[in-house]
Prior knowledge:
The protein is α/β, with parallel strands linked by helices. It has helices at residues 41-48, 119-123, 126-139, 156-167, 181-187, 200-203, 216-222, 241-246, 251-270, 284-295, 312-320; strands at 2-6, 16-19, 29-39, 61-62, 66-74, 86-89, 102-106, 110-112, 147-150, 171-176, 191-194, 207-212, 226-234, 274-277, 303-308, 327-331. The protein has two domains: 2-125 and 301-331, Medium-chain alcohol dehydrogenases, catalytic domain (Quinone Oxidoreductase, Chain A, domain 1); 128-277, 3-Layer(aba) Sandwich (Rossmann fold). It is built from eleven helices and 16 strands. Helix 3 (126-139) packs across helix 4 (156-167). The radius of gyration is 19 Å and the shape is globular. One of its GO terms (molecular function) is oxidoreductase activity.
Amino acid sequence: MKAYIIKKYGKKEHLQLVELPEPLLSDNDILVRVHSAALNPLDSKIKNGDFKLILPYKLPLVLGHDVAGEVIRIGSRVHKFQVGDRVYSRPADHRIGAFAELIAIHEDDAAIMPKNLTMEEAASIPLVGLTAWQALIEKAGLTEGQKVFIQAGSGGVGAFAVQLAKYLGATVATTAGAANFEMVQSLGADIVIDYRQEDFEEKLKDFDVVLNSQDAATLEKSLSVLKRGGKLVSISGPPDADFANEIGASWLLKSVFKVLSLGIRRKAKRRGVSYSFLFMRAQGAQLDRITSLIESGKIRPVVDKVFPFEMLDEALAYVESGRVKGKVVLKMR
Length: 333
């Protein structure tokens, strides 16, 4: 099969198109012929080597965390899927590889894709959908009547999170450039702040939840918009000790994470709020629930551009430009 690999980490490294053997299929795996794969900033960060500490991959590595395609073979113990099923998935860490013609996925990490979406639209959903779900529902416990501030509402995670928060009955504030105001308002944002002209920390107060996806300075400013008892959930770091426990990290790595998050945890405690880090995980059962929301029209995909498989480097450069509205997707031949 054809696949894109990285042979070594580095910002200047390009993905190489090579021929690889078909993936090995375990008893609980499904073999999926890839129709579409979405790109994420996470792909760039792994390529650059930013996550070597958290995700020590063996190189060469096939990147790609979002996939939609057709099941062409199943393992002997698979019971959820049949050959011919149209599925989508965010494969588990250490089993990624959507930038290829075929991928083997554990059946628990996949779901039947929404019937009202194209393959390209379906591929845009898993990583951002699961991130928003795990941040707002699992970590924050967001409920009807609460107020949530979701940064970068026109981005991949932001566009999904705004819709999910609105479905949950929350009042939603977000940041965006003026050109994207109409877009984020159409997704359900009640308050939109122009990040180029206004300081969100001066406009917002007494919020229950903040979903942070930006830099350390923005993370610290986010504390000021929360009321006592509020929750700050960050998907951009720093990682904390709870995350270290979740991934079964060594005592040394746990100590590193404690030090990295010490400053923000202390500041959060002084304000009477909580801080937690989220690195989303694969979860097919949650994708099933997301499918229901999409099929009922509560949430819709936001796809910026679709690139052919042969233009992966150009697609990744576009993601790295920071100008993406929603998601960027690859389409196989």
